[in-house]
Specification:
By secondary structure, the chain is α+β, with helices and mostly antiparallel strands. The protein folds into two domains: 94 residues, D-Maltodextrin-Binding Protein, domain 2, CATH 3.40.190.10; 200 residues, D-Maltodextrin-Binding Protein, domain 2 (3-Layer(aba) Sandwich), CATH 3.40.190.10. The chain has 14 helices and ten strands. The strands form four sheets. The chain has a three-stranded mixed sheet. The chain has a three-stranded antiparallel sheet with strand order 5-4-6.
């Protein structure tokens, strides 16, 4: 393949505005679910059975809590975390309307995600998943599930070597058995105005080329927007990368793509999620209020 043809078509499409390419595809990620197999087994759950859907996930979480462990950490106070569950509903979208003044986010679907998160929280720790303490709960066999990206794996792999952590990773269960949750994001390379444009471009194009991208993929299991790399036999054997690649299938973006957004645009998701935790809003109220507040910030720009 030529240099231009090696990049994944969907990323090229995202980076295209009119007849202009805004950047060169680089790395990307999609979120997955890590499972502590020791905790599952002690709770009487066979890891090989998997998790069918949200109802099954809650049933397993109940058994875990009753066995003296935490199902997971706290997710309601963190916007990025919300999207992992919202992405697990068939047809979920996170984009902007053509006029850029409202989200394409569906209130009823978001409410369903928040309802699940509220129930999930009842079996989980009050430690935020973004805190180091949540990692510690997982690596010391006190917590069963941890939602994150492939970037969490090196920590768990090290714990496996140091203390025998027994874990695996699967797709985040969806609302129904025929879908799964995930959020995706990534990076692209661009050359800004400089007196050394040619040198900057050579460096950017070198980094994005298949040999370098293979090192990213093989070294850290990071999904890359390069079809030549993804077809490489060595990369095909990388279980973490292949799982994150599959997670892309129904993932929602971490923010509306290529959009000029107000500062702290997603903050209403955290604010209203916290109100659910405090018992001051229902998931249905929180979903409507969060989307209304984000839409208002778009209209006030």
């Amino acid at each position: 393949a030529s240099w231009q043809q090696q990049f994944s078509p969907w990323t090229v499409k995202v980076l295209t505005e009119g007849n202009q390419i805004l950047g060169v595809p680089f790395t990307a990620y999609a979120s997955i679910l890590y499972r502590n197999l020791t905790v599952l087994k002690k709770a009487g759950i066979d890891p090989a059975v998997g998790i069918k859907d949200w109802a099954d996930w809650l049933a397993q979480s109940k058994k875990i809590k009753e066995s003296g462990f935490f199902a997971s950490a706290k997710y309601l106070d963190f916007p990025w975390a919300h999207l992992n569950f919202y992405g697990g509903i068939k047809g979920a979208q996170l984009g902007l309307s053509p006029d850029g003044k409202s989200l394409t986010m569906d209130v009823s679907k978001y409410a369903d995600a928040l309802q699940f998160m509220k129930e999930f929280q009842s079996y989980s720790s009050n430690v935020s998943f973004a805190d180091q303490a949540a990692n510690d709960l997982f690596t010391t066999n006190k917590m069963a599930f941890f939602v994150s990206g492939p970037f969490a794996d090196p920590t768990f792999e090290q714990a496996k070597k140091n203390s025998g952590l027994d874990y695996d990773y699967i797709l985040i269960p969806g609302q129904t058995a025929d879908t799964h949750g995930a959020v995706y994001g990534g990076e692209f390379l661009a050359v800004l105005k400089t007196t050394k444009t040619d040198s900057a471009w050579k460096w950017a194009s070198f980094l994005a080329d298949a040999p370098q991208m293979k090192r990213f993929a093989a070294g850290i299991g990071r999904y890359v927007s390069n079809d030549v790399v993804l077809a490489d036999p060595e990369i095909k054997n990388n279980a973490l990368l292949q799982l994150t690649s599959k997670a892309f299938e129904s993932a929602v973006p971490e923010v509306p793509l290529m959009a000029d957004l107000p500062e702290q645009f997603l903050q209403p998701m955290a604010d209203n999620g916290t109100l659910i935790l405090l018992g001051k809003e229902t998931p249905q109220q929180a979903a409507k209020n969060a989307i209304d507040q984000m839409n208002q910030s778009l209209q006030n720009r």
